[in-house]
């Protein structure tokens, strides 16, 4: 095996640099293209993808995050996505293509880092990053992915500037400035990336002159000044509450899961409800929950080990470019670790693993070099083969099998997504019964509501707000959201003293979802919050119609309930906007 790998390695080494660049580009392009059609038509997470469709549209209509709607992250992703949709339109395809660009940014950033070890190792690391970043939530344009992409690109620019300091100071100054500016973009996308960006910058700039460090700091400072827009439009308190207090203080107890993950079952409700069934895998494999358990410890071990290896390599070879890159990238990955611990599920593990575990092949090469005076020629080639195979064998349900399933969906196989369409807008849902109920609901809303009426979407029992079908706002764009809590979170929307009861009272139409009534996680999401919103519903609203029935529910709980505010039920406009008499 080693002989075959080594001979292949020698043949590839004889290719011209241009041929190698083209092949790298084609391989990565093919790796993204193969699952693309399946990803574009795959079911989306109803709340997460829902609010990433609704939020930028609200920005285009003049609303501001944390003034007009809750947004737990930085405003940068919404500004960028709103600009993107201004050009391409507010569509699911536009949102997912933006998500694809963010994923390409992550993979390109990892490749750029690992390129210091050659194209083959760079390509292997990039493909690992792709394998980690694509499956968890498909192409949903979440801010974390864009923030990591900008953080990696900023780190690479800073490292390029460092290399040029002694050769071309003016060029170095430009790269250091842009490294800081792009890194600031990462913080505008996700403020909680400050640890990763800060540690990565320290590793990249350590030992440079104060003048060089000031160039980076100037770029970073200018970029972060964009937060002034957020502070002015939303207000300092609203910004601090929405981006710090709500996610860190009020929400955390309702989202955290047991550490480490349970060995014999999945703790996360969304992961259980969409759990990957054991595939027809030709080799022995652990159960899904067991893979997640092992992944947790592998993730922590690798995230900690990579910067340590980089540090030892840097101490032995202070002028080594590779050692500096590994150290800085390892520190960046270490700063991402809190994201993988705050909620121990596969999505958060992937968001951390896409950097540190993706760089494991080059870390192993450096480790071998530390232990031996020379690196055997077969080490890189063997590493390229062995590590990806080991990762796929350890976590097939979350990496190789999930990727392969998206490829199969591209060619029309294994599709479990059902389209919900209205007026040219489409959303894909993973349950046929819910999709059918939603279609009937969407057809009924215009019969009882007028364009401009405020729409409230929430769960059927407003004492518990673990999740929301926020995608309904996207499919009903003529009815502006009537609540600050487009994204509903436990301990936030249902907290005593929140504005949700007032928002509901001032809405004309309410859609309540029973889809998530059996939400059950070992955290505070199971606790009941304020009952005031339920009282407002009973006092001010009347039920118009129900749609669908929860399967295996002896109480025949509807999937969706449509309400109208009693204040509009007597409108003499002939539209049938009145409460039923029964």
Beta-strand level of the residues, as a percent range?
A: 5-15%
Structural class: alpha+beta
End-to-end C-alpha gap: 77 Å
**Backbone CA Rg:** 25 Å
What's the number of helices?
25
Q: State the shape.
A: globular
Count of DSSP strands? 6
- Assign a percent range to the helix content: 55-70%
- Main sheet properties: 4 strands, mixed
Short description:
The protein has 582 residues and is of the alpha+beta class. 58% of the residues lie in helices and 6% in strands.
Structure description:
With 582 residues, this protein is of the alpha+beta class. Among the domains are: 51-90 and 142-250, no CATH class; 418-568, no CATH class. The protein is 58% helix and 6% strand. The chain has helices spanning 2-13, 17-33, 36-40, 48-60, 76-88, 92-114, 119-133, 143-163, 169-189, 194-205, 210-224, 227-234, 236-250, 252-255, 269-273, 288-316, 321-342, 346-353, 360-371, 378-394, 400-410, 432-448, 471-475, 500-505, 532-540, and strands at 418-422, 425-429, 455-459, 509-513, 541-549, 558-565. Strands 3-4-6-5 form a four-stranded mixed beta sheet. It has a two-stranded antiparallel sheet with strand order 1-2. A hairpin with a 2-residue loop joins strand 1 (418-422) and strand 2. Helix 6 runs antiparallel to helix 7 and helix 16 (288-316) runs antiparallel to helix 17 (321-342). The protein is globular and about 85 Å long. It starts with a helix and ends in a 17-residue tail after the last strand. The model has no long low-confidence stretch (mean pLDDT 90).
